[in-house]
Amino acid sequence: MSNLAAFTIGPEKNKFLIHKKFACEASPIFKSAFNSSFVEGKSQEYVLEDTTEAAFTMFTEWVYTGRLEINFTRYSAETVDRNGKCGLLQCNLMELWLLADKVMAPSLQNRAIWLLAESYSKFLCFDLNKLDRVWEGSGVDSKLRLYILQHFALKMGKGVYKSHGDSFPKEMLLEMSTLHWQNREDKVTAMPSMETFYVKEGI
Q1: What is the tens place of the pLDDT at every residue in 169-194?
Q2: Which pTM does this prediction carry?
């Protein structure tokens, strides 16, 4: 068991075991924690209460394979809510991005945001359930925030704000008004390339 690290995930405290070597290679946060004299180093256990089991399952796949693939055909039309919400997939990807941000795994952040954009192209809808969580769990310079802001500024009509006004955090709406002004000034009329929303990898 000494080559395994334990992770306690979410408010339900689900347990995961990952080989310590892979966890430390995936995240400098884990490498520092598990090799320290602090509680994580002594117990070889790391607690992540502010994430989900689904997001950590995706993280585990990436840790072991270096890849994260989504089989979009599994998400049939029946999983797409008629009110414009796309089930759990996009929620899980946003949670994954926040988790990767927390543990300093930029390549996983970039993969998660690419898959989030790809899911929109497949389903032509965007889940609103995680917007509060994204704005609570990220900073003003967050690339995930920027992607969501540009997405709604350039791809969504006014109707979504009228029909789902309570779903938008006030801070997001303030940032949106600033972005609209900036887009007009810069003559931005189409969604920027995905590289705009990628986190810098490496040193």
Answers
A1: 999 999 999 999 999 999 999 999 99
A2: 0.91
| Residue 99 · residue 51 · CB < 8 Å | yes
Q: Which residue has tokens 């990767």?
A: 100
Structural tokens at position 157: 């009509």
- Those residues whose C-beta lies under 8 Å from the C-beta of residue 127, and which sit 6 or more positions away, are 85, 86, 87, 89, 90, 91, 94
